[in-house]
Design goal:
Blueprint (H helix, E strand, L loop, with lengths): L1 H8 L5 H6 L2 H16 L10 H5 L3 H31 L6 H29 L2 H61 L16 H17 L9 H14 L15
Helix pairs in contact: 1-5, 3-5, 5-6, 6-7, 7-8, 7-9, 8-9
Length: about 260
Amino acid sequence: FLGRAVAKASRDTSRAVRIALGRGVLGAALAGAVVAFFFIDRGRSTTTFMLDLGAQSAAAVYSMIQFTYDAIVLTAMIAVTVRQVRQTTGAERLPPLSVLVGSVLGIALPVVIVVMDVAHVAGDLGLMFSLGVVYGPLYLATFVFLCVGLAGQPLVRRARARSRAERTRDLVARVTPVWRRATAVRPGLSQVTDAGFHDADAETRLHRELVEIRDAVIDPRASFALTDAESELLEEAEAQLIGGGAARGGRLKGSR
């Protein structure tokens, strides 16, 4: 589920990633684990399953199938998150970086577990318990980095959306005086009561005001001109609407 969630968050995923996160690989892993489990001589109830039963080959296979599948999924997640890290900057890069670190640790974890399983079956309990010292911290670190990264992505998006909304409202407040002056000499659709505009939506209102200001500028029948400061303000607002912020100018799509 974590792997598919990350894959869906990426626009472009390779065929190998889609296969790794697909139902076929999942079904094969589930079938193998179920079959291996029923070959285990389970005996009495236990709360330390692999410690008590891990010496059995079937138990080792059962464990290795599960964690090998985990490694496949996490490898696919690495392919996805590397692309996300390259496409993001600033605070937006931190969540995919956290997922990337968690995925790398999560691949090291199955390697440790598989070696522990093999050592247990081979009777090398010294090696198994030595690796067991690494297992605990590695498992915890994997869990923490993955959870922080996956939880951080919606939090960063929410913060970005809030910042964008505040900036849009600020631009509306600054553009509105220019719009009022423009519509005083050239009334626009906003003067029609049933035009369908909703002032509650700051982006819709900003878009409408920009279009009507541009219309007043290019209409030869209207005596209306922008100052240099007003022109810069309109370019800033247009850049905000197309998602570029103040760093990118350009005319708003839909203006005439």
